[in-house]
Amino acid sequence: MTDRPSIYLFPYLRLREEVHFGPWVLQPLDSRKLAEPFDDFGRTLKALLSCFRDEAGQALTTATLVQRTEPELDHGEPRENELSALQAAVLFAVTDANAGHGNEIPWDAPTLNVVTAEVATFFVGELTALENGTFVRTKGGTLNRRIIGGGTVHDDFVFVPAPEGLVTIPDLSLDGQLLDAVHRVSVEALSDDSAKTTREVWAALHWHGRAWENSPLHTMPDILVQLKTAIEALSGKSGTASGITALEEIYRSATGTIGADEFLWRESAPRFSREFNGKTKMYSAFGHWYWYLADTRNAIVHDTESPVMEHDAAGSPFQGNLFRIAERVTREFIKIRLAQLGYPEAALSPSSRKHLSIAQGLGKQISTISPSHA
Q1: Cα dihedral across residues 254, 257, 260, 265: positive or negative
Q2: Do 65 and 179 contact (CB within 8 A), yes or no?
Q3: Beta strand pairing status for 6-10 and 64-68?
Q4: Angle CA(254)–CA(259)–CA(290) in degrees, nearest 5?
Q5: Mapping DSSP to helix (H, G, I), strand (E, B) and coil, where does residue 143 land?
Q6: Can you tell me whether residue 32 is helix, strand or coil?
Q7: Helix/strand/coil for 264
Q8: Which of 66, 256, 273, 319 has the most crowded Cβ, counting Cβ within 10 A?
Q9: Exposed/middle/buried for 274, CB within 10 Å: 0-12, 13-18, 19+?
Q10: Is the dihedral of CA 345, 349, 351, 355 positive or negative?
Q11: How far apart are CA 57 and CA 170, in angstroms?
């Protein structure tokens, strides 16, 4: 083990309160204390923040610092896996925070301030270099990346512009139990002997997070393909028909449990017909919607067609804007899978957790989503 070799920071994440999960603490920085730091670490942190620019081009005065409650892992794959799990957990919790206290995002509410993936941008800086004032700027990505400048964190000319897709930095409350479940499942998924289901959840988390990127180059067809890929990963099937069966089983596992009414799935929903190659088959409301998503994805990929964004199916809980429904369905499946992997409260809203706690305190038996060995 090594002790505090790096500083971990979410520069654009503003938290209302501290959050503990796994070996981590997400700590909102007090801008008043940073204004007059009392030690070397505080001075380094203040200088580092001043290098970052917010969505309006102003220097940052606060951020979210990541602290460990356990000794730091040595450099190597386990440490990298743990940091990847940390990023995945924060990104999923940030995007889920758009929904507030359930699974439905109030897209048409005038007060909605949509939070995108850019808010979960993660920075890792080596402490020795930062405490000595060294700061190196890079540009580019996987295909072409290079150093474009540098200096010290105390130089006025050294700055990091905000991500292009960053539009807003609102104050957020993140779900600690959801963070913990995603982090633990992600660490397991990245281990050498991980189970298939955890790897499917990891893949879905990746594509769901990509769908929330707000770059001007990121189009709605891109987003729909990414969300379809996320849902397909959770099904464990490459075919749509077999995928529907697998995904319906995931949804049905929540039937009769506390919080089941917070998911879009309704066993009592009407069935719908689908015509293909001169044949007509009947499907559940979900199956009918999933075929529409699959057909839209195929039209985008194979025919470069612009998607028709409205799924028109009167009486279906899956009727409506294709992106909004696909994003919600992806989050719901991920949460149910987390519950099946041993974290039942990750699938519950705060109000359902409160009801569960009260009922358990009174000795009442309340059903939650059962662990699965899939």
Answers
A1: positive
A2: no
A3: antiparallel
A4: 50
A5: coil
A6: helix
A7: coil
A8: 66
A9: middle
A10: negative
A11: 16
- How far apart CA 41 and CA 144 sit, in angstroms, is 33
Strand-pair partners of 282: 273
Cβ-contact 47, 157 below 8 angstroms: no
Look up residue 167 and give its two tokens: 């539009």
Could you read off the pLDDT of 248-296 as tens digits, one per residue? Answer: 999 999 999 999 999 999 999 999 999 888 899 999 999 999 999 999 9
Query: Residue 185 is encoded by which pair of tokens?
Result: 């499942």
- Per-residue tokens: 302: 């194979």
Taking the C-alpha atoms of residue 272 and residue 285, their distance in angstroms, rounded to an integer, is: 6
Q: Are 274 and 374 in contact (CB under 8 A)?
A: no
Which residues have CB under 8 Å from 83's CB, separation 6+? 8, 122, 124
28: phi then psi, degrees, rounded to nearest 5: -65, 130
C-alpha to C-alpha distance for 232 and 208, rounded to whole angstroms: 11
Nearest to 350 by CA among 121, 124, 176, 185: 176
Question: Contact, 64 vs 122, CB < 8 A?
Answer: no
Give pLDDT tens digits for 138-175: 888 888 988 877 777 777 777 889 999 999 999 999 99
- The answer to whether the CB of 154 falls within 8 A of the CB of 130 is no
User: In what helix (H) or strand (E) does residue 218 lie, and over which residues does it extend?
Assistant: none
Which residues fall within 8 angstroms of residue 204, CB to CB, at 6 or more apart? 230, 231, 233, 234, 330, 333, 334, 337
Kindly state the tokens that stand for 127: 């402490």
Q: What is the mean pLDDT of the chain?
A: 92
Alpha-carbon distance values, 141 to 81, 138, 205, 210 (Å): 20, 9, 20, 15
DSSP conformation class of 6 = E
DSSP string, 300-318: HHHH-PPP--EE--TT-TT
In the structure, how many helices (H) and strands (E) does the chain have? 11, 13
- Write out the two tokens for 90: 């924060």
